[in-house]
Amino acid sequence: MEFTFLGTSAGTPTRSRNVTGLALCRSGPKPWYLVDCGEGTQHQLLRTRYSVMQLRAIFITHIHGDHTFGLPGLLTSASMLGRTEPLDIIAPTQVQRLIHAVINNSDSSLSYSLNFIDSEAPDFYWQDDYFSVTNVALSHRVPCRAYKFTERHLERQLLQAELRQDGIEPGPSWGELQKGNDVLLDDGRLIRSDDYTHLPRTARRLIVAGDNDTPELLAEAARDSHVLVHESTYTQEVADRVGPWPQHSSAEQVARFAQQVKLPNLVLTHFSSRYQSGPVGTPHISQVAAEAMQHYQGNLFLARDFETYRLEKDLSLVPLSKGT
Amino acid sequence: MEFTFLGTSAGTPTRSRNVTGLALCRSGPKPWYLVDCGEGTQHQLLRTRYSVMQLRAIFITHIHGDHTFGLPGLLTSASMLGRTEPLDIIAPTQVQRLIHAVINNSDSSLSYSLNFIDSEAPDFYWQDDYFSVTNVALSHRVPCRAYKFTERHLERQLLQAELRQDGIEPGPSWGELQKGNDVLLDDGRLIRSDDYTHLPRTARRLIVAGDNDTPELLAEAARDSHVLVHESTYTQEVADRVGPWPQHSSAEQVARFAQQVKLPNLVLTHFSSRYQSGPVGTPHISQVAAEAMQHYQGNLFLARDFETYRLEKDLSLVPLSKGT
C-alpha cells in the first residue's frame, strides 16, 4: 500500500506546498484513489506515476475550496484525454452541485459518467476489489470526514494437510478456496474457505482525515489502524493566538491523541502557509515537528509534497522518496 | 508596458506549460491586470512579482475551463490574504454564475466586492488611469473576445515658448496643463491642455486575443497596434487533420494575417499539449515556429511560461526573461 502527498498546505498554496490532495494505491498505480482535490492537483499528478485514466474514485473530506477546487480541471482533463471508465466521487452533496454548475457554465462535458456517493450518509460504506472504505465524522466548520481504507482480499494460504485429511484432493476447488470462495463439492459437501485457508497477515489499515479540531473522534477507528494522516495546521502557541474559530488541530493535540491510542505511525500534513520549509524564516516547519515529538513516541512524519510512503505487509511505514 | 505569460498550453496543462493566463502592467506591478485565469494561475503568480493584492481587473476572453478554472482559487486566496479593494471582472455573464455557484457550494466568502462587467456588451469599454480597453468579437465554439489595451495619460511636454508668448507664466496652471487638464485662468481665459502641450510619442497598444479561428476579425483593431498575442494551437498540417471543429488557429493562419496587416510584433501562445519543448520528442514546438516564420517577416515570438516582454516607449518589443 502506497500513498503520495500531492499537497500539504492549508488554505492557500505556497511555492513549495500545494493545497490538499493525496494519491493512494494498493500495489501499483492501477487502479488508484484520490483523497481531496485542491486546485492544481492535476498539475501535481503530472509529476507522479498516477494518471487520471486509472483513477478509480475520489474521496472528498469536506467542501472547502482548498480540498475541492481542483475537481473541475481534473475531471475535464480526464475527458480531454478520452477517459470512458465511470468515476466514483464520494463527497458531500454540495460537491455535486459545484461540479455541475462549473460544467454547465464553461461549455464543458465529460466523456465518462460520474457516480456521486454521499459521504455524509449515515450508513456510508464503499468497496472495490482492493479496499473497503468507511468514514468517521470529524469536527470542523463544515461537515467533514476521515476515510479509513482497509485492504481486501488478502492472499490466503491453503491448509493442505487438513484438505487431504478430509478427502479434498488438489483441483479447481483448491483455487476457489484460496480466493476466499466457498465451494460445493460433487459429493454434496459445502466447503468453507475460512475453514481450509489461513490469512498469514493482518489487513493494512490507513486513515486519511480531513480538517478537524477534535482528534479524539478518531479513537475508535484508530484502534486497529496502522497509519493516521491528520492535519496539524499550527503549533499550539499559534493555535491559541488564532483562537478556536478555524477549527483546526495543533501539532500537540494530534500528537497527544496518537500517543494515547498507541498509534504506530502518524503523518502530519495541512500546514499553515506561515510555516516555511527552507533554511531560514520564522515560523519554521521544524517547530511543528518539535512540538509533535514532545508528545508522541511513535513513528512521526511531516509530509512534504510528492513524498511517497509505503505501508509494508509487516505494517511498517517506509518513506520512499524525499518529496520537495 | 510589460506582460508575463502565466500559462501557454491549450486545454490541459503540461509539465512545462500551464493553461492560459497573462499578467500585464503599465509601469511596475501596482496595479496590474490579468487576462484569463486557467487553473493554477494563483500558483504561477507565486513565482512572479505580481500579487493578488494589487490586481486591478481580470479580463476573461471566454468561458472555457482552461481560461477560467483558476478564478475560484485566486479570488478566495486574495480574500484569505485580507484583500479589501473591489475587483473588476470583465467576462461573459456565465463566469459570474460559475463564481457564485462555487462560492456558495464551498462555504467560501470574499472580503472584498466583485464588480462584474459583461465583456459581450455591444458598447464594451473599460478604463482606469493607466489603460483604456476595448474588445473585438472573435470566432470560436463559444463567444470569445480579444482585448485591446491602449495606454492613457501619456507624459505631456509643455510648450513653454507658446505659454510665455501668450502671457501664461509658470505656476500651478502649468502643472495642470501638463497633466492634461484644461485650466481657467484668473483673467477668465480657458486654456486647453492640448493647445499648450505636446505628446512626444505614440500611445502603446497591445491586443491579447482569446481562442479564435479567424484572425482576420482583428484586422481593424490591429492596424494601430504594436503587439498581438494570439493563439496558435497547431501547425497547419495538424489543424487539417483535426478538422475545423475546435475552431482554433494554425501558426500559418496567424502569421499570414500578421504579415498582411503589417503587424510589427507577434507573440504566439496557447499551444496544443502535443507539442514538446524539450530537446527530443515529436511533434516539437519548433515546428510551430518554423511554420510561422515562413509567412511572417515581423518580430515573431513563441511564448513560454514566466516569460516577460516589455513594450518600450519606442514601440520595440523586448523579451526580458527566458521563461521556462
From TrEMBL, chains A, B:
Zn(2+) 1 binds at H62, H64, H140, D211. The keyword tRNA processing applies. It holds the Pfam family Anti-Pycsar_Apyc1. Keywords: Endonuclease, Hydrolase, Metal-binding, Nuclease, tRNA processing, Zinc. Gene3D superfamilies: Ribonuclease Z/Hydroxyacylglutathione hydrolase-like (3.60.15.10). Binds 2 Zn(2+) ions. It is an enzyme of class 3 (hydrolase). The active site is at D66. The keyword Secreted does not apply. Its cofactor is Zn(2+). Zn(2+) 2 binds at D66, H67, D211, H270. Its EC number is 3.1.26.11. It comes from the Bacteria. InterPro entries: RibonucZ/Hydroxyglut_hydro (IPR036866), RNase_Z/BN (IPR013471). CDD domains: RNaseZ_ZiPD-like_MBL-fold (cd07717). It catalyses: Endonucleolytic cleavage of RNA, removing extra 3' nucleotides from tRNA precursor, generating 3' termini of tRNAs. A 3'-hydroxy group is left at the tRNA terminus and a 5'-phosphoryl group is left at the trailer molecule. Zinc phosphodiesterase, which displays some tRNA 3'-processing endonuclease activity. Probably involved in tRNA maturation, by removing a 3'-trailer from precursor tRNA. Homodimer. Belongs to the RNase Z family. PANTHER family: ZINC PHOSPHODIESTERASE ELAC PROTEIN 1. This is Ribonuclease Z. It comes from Marinobacter suaedae.
